[in-house]
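for the writeup, i need someone to sanity check this before i put it in the appendix. the sequnce is what the collaborator sent (i think, or maybe the updated version? ugh). structure was predicted straight from it, no edits. if anything looks off just tell me and ill rerun, i have time this weekend
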Amino acid sequence: MRSRPLFSSLVLCVLLLLCPLVIRAETSFQDVYGNSLSFQGVPERVVSLYGSFAEAWMLAGGELVGVTQDAVTERGLSLDEQVQIVGTVKEPNLEAVLALDPDFVILSADIASHAPAAELLRQMGIPCALFRVDTFEDYLEMFEIFCSLTGRADCYAQYGEAVAAQIDAVRAAVQDAPTRRVLLLRAYSSGVKAKGADNIAGAILQDLGCDNVADRNAHLLEDLSLEAIVSEDPEFIFVTVMGSDEDAALAFLDERFGTDPAWQGLSAVREGRLLLLPKELFHYKPNARWGESYAYLAHLLYPERF
């Protein structure tokens, strides 16, 4: 008489054990190159070969077993002691990556060494995806994938939807504002280039309705001519710095243009609107701070509206 309840209890225990396997949702997506991936449940041994994407994965509630050095030196991430450094963002150590037995590797389509690294990982049967983030929409698309993988809708609401609402508020505030004529420059320790909408600052300027003279003067992107800049006389000149030596980059910019009377005569220079943009908002991917990036530029462009 007692065998039946015992049998029922055993069946119930087996079903409870199997339930997590039955109800775990499958997440499928494509990376920037159209490679299809599918995961049953949450990847638990994740390696990110780009510090910004490592941060985004953590914002999505994910855990990491390996990162590249920039996650610490540039992003300043607080990582558990067991998280391993697997080389640099430009030269990841694939042997170190493989030693961690990853079940998902995150890479950047903007880093030359990452595409061949991803191909090698795929040949070895290790799931990996390449992402590209130049705009907030790019970030939101990637972040939605990350939150789907972790099952953390709350993280998407906090670091995705809430940020989108911040940006929408900035857009609304400047919707009917006058168009600002701007020039965006990127300075290096050994050079300076005009930049269009193919980067964070340029994309935001375009979204805020600015006329970036580099976007409609293709020759400026190839040959930064002071004569062409003077003919446009931008109201604002924004500068982002690439590389670790910011002082050297700014010194190069000053050496190239600073002492030229034509440069000094530009409205932006003469009236104090030659402005250096902070790296954390306009060089590194802002992730949860995209709303701050929009607000920062909008305040500079339209202070009367904020």
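The first strand starts at residue 26 and ends at 30. Residues 1-23 have pLDDT under 50 and may be disordered.
thx in advance!!
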